[in-house]
Amino acid sequence: MTIKQLSIFIENKSGTLIKVLDMLSKANIQIIASTIADTKDYGIYRLLTNDSAQAYLILKESGINVQLSDVIALSIDDEPGRAANAVKQISDAGVSILYLYSFVWKGKGVLVFRTDQSEKAKETIMLNKFSFLTEKDFQ
Amino acid sequence: MDDKSPYLHPQYETLSPDALKALQLERLQATVKHCMNSPFYKKRFEEHGLKPEDIKSLEDIRKIPFTTKQDLRDTYPFGIASVPLRQCVRLHSSSGTTGNPTVILHTQKDLDEWANQVARNLWMVGLRPDDVFQNSSGYGMFTGGLGFQYGAEKLGMLTVPAAAGNSLRQIKFIKDFGTTAIHAVPSYVTRLYEVMQQEGVDPRKDTKLKVLAIGAEPHSEEQRQRIEKMMGVKAYNSFGMSEMCGPGVGFECQEQNGLHFWEDYYIVEIVNPDTLEPVPEGEIGELVLTTLCREAMPLLRYRTRDLTRVLGHTCPCGRNHVRLDRMRGRSDDMMVLRGVNIFPIQIEKILMQFKELANNYLITLTTDEDNDNMTVEVELEELFTDDFQRLLALQKEIKRRLKDEILLTPHVKLVPKGTLPVSEGKAVRVVDKRKVYQ
């Protein structure tokens, strides 16, 4: 139910992002979605790609601080209120969300989030019959 | 002493250069003889085939081998002492974080002489028994506390051992007790001023301050002038080191043109730190000091590691004691931040205990809004989480452990692996951006 997301530790400085993007581009890796969270000094660049395992290896070999993190990608109708409903169910089940981002993929809304309580999260998703994406969907 | 006298010890302060030299030779010969009671010096003289009688002139001091901080560590705790412990009444010690601490012993006479030097300095800058002296310097093992306390008392001032920190209380004391003089490290004076501003206290109008003694941390002429402008009073540079006694060794007179080092108490040499030969007069070199009045632990040709130069031997103030420039830096890698001595190795030792971190690190010293700060940048070995909270927790833990070690709280900055500069050969570990040594 979870998919692999790349988390990259980057300096909050110009030129650092393009370095990572260049490497991915040369390896012909497609970015499906990405988001940056930053502090004063550094940021974490999170990406979903069409081949996270390959991307991880390439970045790792180049000495980049990268981690593969397990995240959940819910597929919801691209309509008002759907995200609110999904987050409410998850929240009501007592699952806390560490971070969340969203994008539109093939006409459907995608809610990507990370939690430390993945078992509970999975249970909630099954009970509510939410549909979710797997890595195959991006390949 | 009559309040109107510019000198507390005119018999020593105004000695002619020749008389000063004669006194130094007499005291050097006595000191060397006394050092033969020290197991360390006895052995060292024997190893060099040197006898106290070989010191016939002041120039002969160059026959004596140097004493280093390492010698103090190697003989820890009492191996250099020249008197039995029962004659000692005080011990001071530096932080021993890079090995054994260094221990300095004092007899009662040593303490009296130390107080005399500090009193002489304070009198020199115009303080008299009517003054109220607030010592906002750390007490305990740090000699800036007790050193100024006893010196100011010796002079006869009402002396307030306020110690460092708690700025609101300091300001209350300054106002309530009518404090006229403060001793503190320069960065603490600027801190005090900030708090005064916040509290709406104008040091010019609301206090009786007239003199500041600042020292124990490197600072530039510009920084001094900024402090003088802020507080509206003269700030005099003080030099001390616990190996010599503490504060008192050197001090600026009212001319503010270099620090007078008291040549009735010390022999001052400036040597090239590489060749250990004397540098030409006026050139920068390492300050080497020999004590002339110490009983418990005389030190011969002690390498201070501080870099400075001779500015002159005479002064309009009438004192012929050598004037040295403010310290220009160090001949080793020790950093002095807010009066605390820190070696990069102390920081490295802590960082290496974190398996999350790579080997490279960079220490940057800056002056931000008049406060000296340290930033430690550390490279992340592995991104072990993509959770900010855990990264922040790591940062906080590094900070806490560093504070335990160096007694100051540095900024800690996590950076990706491979981003810190690695120089050819020896890595650059410390960048000092403070406007200190200019």
Instruction: Tell me how many strands of chain B there are.
Output: 21
Percent in helix of chain B: 25-40%
Most extensive interface: A-B, 21 and 18 residues
What average pLDDT do the residues of chain B reach? 91
- Major sheet strand order of chain B: 4-3-5-6-7-8-9-14-13
Give the count of helical stretches of chain A.
Answer: 4
Unreliable spans of chain B: none
Kindly state the percentage of residues in helix of chain A. Answer: 25-40%
Q: Report the mean per-residue pLDDT of chain A as an integer.
A: 93
Task: Label the structural class of chain B.
Answer: alpha/beta
SS class of chain A: alpha+beta
Task: Please give the CATH architecture of the largest domain in chain B.
Answer: 3-Layer(aba) Sandwich
List keywords for this structure.
heterodimer; A: 139 residues; alpha+beta; 7-stranded antiparallel sheet; B: 438 residues; Rossmann fold; GMP Synthetase, Chain A, domain 3; 4-stranded antiparallel sheet; 21 strands; globular
Please provide a written account of the structure.
The complex is a heterodimer of chains A (139) and B (438). With 139 residues, chain A is an alpha+beta fold. Chain A folds into two domains: 2-69, VC0802-like, CATH 3.30.2130.10; 70-138, VC0802-like (2-Layer Sandwich), CATH 3.30.2130.10. Chain A is 30% helix and 39% strand. Chain A is globular, with a radius of gyration of 16 Å. In chain B, a hairpin with a 4-residue loop joins strand 7 and strand 8 (246-252). Chain B is of the alpha/beta class and 438 residues long. In chain B, helix 7 crosses helix 8. Chain B folds into two domains: 10-332, Rossmann fold; 337-432, ANL, C-terminal domain (GMP Synthetase, Chain A, domain 3, 2-Layer Sandwich). A nine-stranded mixed sheet of chain B has the order 4-3-5-6-7-8-9-14-13. Chain B is built from twelve helices and 21 strands. Chain B has helices at residues 10-13, 17-35, 39-47, 69-74, 108-124, 143-155, 167-176, 186-198, 203-206, 221-231, 344-351, 388-406; strands spanning 88-93, 103-107, 132-135, 158-160, 181-184, 211-215, 234-241, 246-252, 259-261, 266-271, 285-291, 302-308, 310-312, 323-324, 329-330, 335-337, 340-342, 357-368, 371-380, 411-415, 430-432. The model of chain B has no long low-confidence stretch (mean pLDDT 91). Chain B is 30% helix and 25% strand. The interface between A and B is medium-sized, with 21 and 18 residues.
